[in-house]
Design a protein that fits this description.
Strand content of chain B: under 5%
Largest sheet of chain A: 7 strands, antiparallel
Number of helices of chain B: 7
Oligomer: heterodimer
Strand content of chain A: 15-25%
Structural class of chain B: mainly alpha
Shape of chain A: rod-shaped
Radius of gyration of chain A: 39 Å
Order of helices and strands of chain B: HHHHHHH
Shape of chain B: elongated
Helix content of chain B: 55-70%
Order of helices and strands of chain A: HHHHHHHEHEEEEEEH
Largest interface: A-B, 40 and 47 residues
């Protein structure tokens, strides 16, 4: 906006300057009045104000019906609408904001829920679940035996200590196994079993960065990734994860069987 | 607005009645401006049969420093008649402006005009009123 336009706007606004000073006058109007008061050219603003004031005084003297005057004073002859909750809630803007807040709240709740359920090593477990989703059985060394016997193999061949299969899964027949290093997880042992095409992973537990200790847990914890679920337990500084397509409920028969 | 108390009262009562009917129908007026907007259209409606002024037909002169003294000598009814004889939307603009009850924003909302247009309506109204004052109540000094 050019200087000329700004001046023109101020002068235009000053023409409608309120006759008496009112609280809550627009900032633009206040600026326009200030400019008009300082302006030496044209009609003096004071003269305009005096003219308007004289007319307004005369207007106030015009006889007005008592009922109208009362209404002007109170403005309460008819109650004004109070915006109802239903109308407010059905307003598209309010609906859109509520929906957006609900989505944000949902994501936040999901994050909190995940965080509460998380355990040391959960990130590693999720990463290995992603390996489980992408790998094919031919990529493993064929090996047909009971899963429980593989802990000796891991120790003898790869020097991996305490890579033990929990009793719940020790009797399952294997299809193949391998030991590999991942970018984020080292010394991972992977076993493919016949039962429901499940995969087992054994990997070093997460150490406390401060003191280097490992806090084992004997109960089963669960992680999820793209329709796969992993049941994880940690003993002797080694995590065992049984991974299969499905949900936490699908592990129930295997985990309850052992309890009985 | 109408230059006639009876007509104005009739328009006002119709507005209040309409508001009451709406309230009974569970659709009360949304804000206080609704009353003024409704009353304005009713006033314009009842004064439609009167002789209507045409825009741009009135003489204009710059407002005089002695105008307040000239105005003091007027009867309130003379002013009411003069305003009611102005063409629309200048008539409503002047009526709302000199009632001194509305903010600029409210006047613009009621009149449905832009700020520049309202400014033109008011400033030309001032000059026309000054011309009329000079013609009817010339200032002859103290």
């Amino acid at each position: 906006m050019s200087l000329f336009q700004i001046r023109s706007n101020h002068s235009s606004l000053a023409q409608c300057a309120p006759i008496t000073e009112k609280p809550g006058t627009d900032r633009a109007m206040r600026v326009a009045i200030q400019h008009a008061r300082r302006d030496k050219k044209g009609l003096p603003f004071a003269q305009q104000q005096a003219f308007d004031g004289a007319i307004a005084k005369l207007v106030r003297a015009i006889a007005v019906d008592a009922q109208v005057a009362e209404w002007f004073a109170k403005e309460s002859l008819v109650p004004l609408v109070k915006r109802r909750w239903k109308k407010i809630l059905l307003n598209p803007v309010v609906l859109a904001i509520a929906l957006a807040l609900a989505v944000i709240g949902g994501i936040f709740a999901l994050r909190v829920h995940q965080h509460l359920r998380d355990f040391p090593g959960a990130d590693k477990a999720r990463r290995l679940l992603s390996v489980a989703t992408s790998i094919r059985s031919v990529m493993l060394d064929p090996l047909q035996t009971n899963a429980g016997t593989l802990s000796d193999l891991f120790f003898m061949k790869h020097r991996l200590e305490h890579y033990d299969i929990p009793p719940e899964f020790a009797d399952f027949r294997t299809l193949g196994s391998r030991v590999f290093d991942d970018d984020a997880v080292h010394s991972v042992a992977q076993i493919w079993v016949v039962e429901k095409r499940m995969q087992f992973f054994l990997f070093p537990a997460e150490k406390n960065p401060k003191d280097g200790t490992v806090k084992d847990f004997s109960d089963w914890r669960f992680v999820e990734f793209e329709g796969w679920t992993g049941a994880v337990r940690q003993r002797n500084g080694v995590c065992f994860m049984a991974a299969m397509r499905g949900s936490e409920k699908d592990f129930a028969p295997y985990l309850e069987k052992k309890k009985q | 607005m109408t230059g006639d108390t009876g007509k104005a009262q009739e328009a006002f009562q119709d507005t209040v009645r309409e508001a009451a009917v709406r309230a009974a129908r569970d659709e009360p007026p949304p804000d206080r401006l609704w009353f003024f907007r409704d009353a304005r259209w009713r006033c314009l409606g009842v004064s439609e049969q009167d002789i209507q002024a045409e825009p741009g037909m009135m003489e204009e002169v710059e407002i005089s420093p002695v105008a307040p003294k000239q105005i003091e000598r007027l009867e309130p009814d003379q002013l009411a008649v003069w305003i009611s004889a102005a063409p629309e939307p200048q008539r409503t603009a002047l009526a709302l402006f000199y009632l001194d009850e509305f903010s600029l924003r409210e006047m613009l909302a009621l009149l449905e005009v832009k700020a520049g247009e309202l400014s033109d309506l008011i400033s030309s109204g001032r000059r026309q009123f000054q011309a009329w004052l000079d013609a009817t109540t010339p200032y002859e000094g103290e």
